Amino acid sequence: xxxxxxxxxxxxxxxxxxxxxxxxxxxxxxxxxxxxxxxxxxxxxxxxxxxxxxxxxxxxxxxxxxxxxxxxxxxxxxxxxxxxxxxxxxxxxxxxxxxxxxxxxxxxxxxxxxxxxxxxxxxxxxxxxxxxxxxxxxxxxxxxxxxxxxxxxxxxxxxxxxxxxxxxxxxxxxxxxxxxxxxxxxxxxxxxxxxxxxxxxxxxxxxxxxxxxxxxxxxxxxxxxxxxxxxxxxxxxxxxxxxxxxxxxxxxxxxxxxxxxxxxxxxxxxxxxxxxxxxxxxxxxxxxxxxxxxxxxxxxxxxxxxxxxxxxxxxxxxxxxxxxxx
Length: 326
Ligand code: UDP
Ligand code: MG
Hints:
- This protein is α/β, with parallel strands linked by helices.
- It folds into two domains: 7-230, Spore Coat Polysaccharide Biosynthesis Protein SpsA, Chain A (Alpha-Beta Complex), CATH 3.90.550.10; 234-304.
- Helix content is 48%, strand content 12%.
- The chain is built from ten helices and seven strands.
- Strands 3-2-1-4-6-5-7 form a seven-stranded mixed beta sheet, sandwiched between helices.
- Strand 2, helix 2 and strand 3 form a beta-alpha-beta unit.
- It is elongated and about 90 Å long.
- The two termini are 25 Å apart.
- The mean pLDDT is 89.
- The structure holds uridine-5'-diphosphate (UDP) and magnesium ion.
- The site of uridine-5'-diphosphate (UDP) has 16 residues, from strand 1 and helix 3.
């Protein structure tokens, strides 16, 4: 298989020995008929079962399969990031290894992408997971993410999505962030849409997550929201908070003075004095934090040569000042 693939399928695998064989069959059955060059990248995230042996055996007879094996379990997001880094395709489609996503949906996602989108997000309209511990927290998280990022798709958590590779090139993934890629991409100017996909119940192996993931997701949401809104101007957020707090402190101080002179309440006996000092100091701290964040952000952008803007295309230019997304 000499030609560079058009499609890279990226699959994070952690203890899925009962699923990988069927999965590879399903992928082949779904994608082979399209007649495109493709590769399937499995990232074994430190499985302690036979997942990798099985994959190795399958890959020995199939050059489309490429395998990466982690030294230990790093988590689904790092596994996906490794797959994205290794992917050579123009289009990248991540997929769960547990057969809950259905590779049959891949051709539809690709067709949608070709209509002129950069991200097509899978939407598990009929999600087959437990209601109270899985679906409810996920509904809340999705609503929160959609509201606070302004990217209104229904199902951030669904792994099955299609990305134009240029969109993923600049995304650095931390924490549980793989689910924020659509929001992230939209902030960078990508065209994002969604499409319902099939979802099956897990029939073999165990789910790796419980309720605690919700909290991690919400914390990550704060990070995304902050970086998206204030990533290049943190002082505007911290400084704004700082001014508000200082202002509140000064106001409380004035009330204390008023009460001293007109109502005869001794300032050192008035709890408002404490509050005034407290608020003012907090305000000063916030401004200082903002200045530090400004230093940090400069190091980040300049050490990595990261521009603070994204260009879609340029005309009559010899050389682009920043990488141009294709
Ligand atoms: N996974 C992984 N590393 C982990 C946890 C999960 O690579 O530490 C993989 C797992 O094998 C599966 C996908 O990520 O392919 C989604 O995991 P799971 O099905 O447990 O999540 P759920 O569908 O329950 O949200
Ligand atoms: Mg699953």
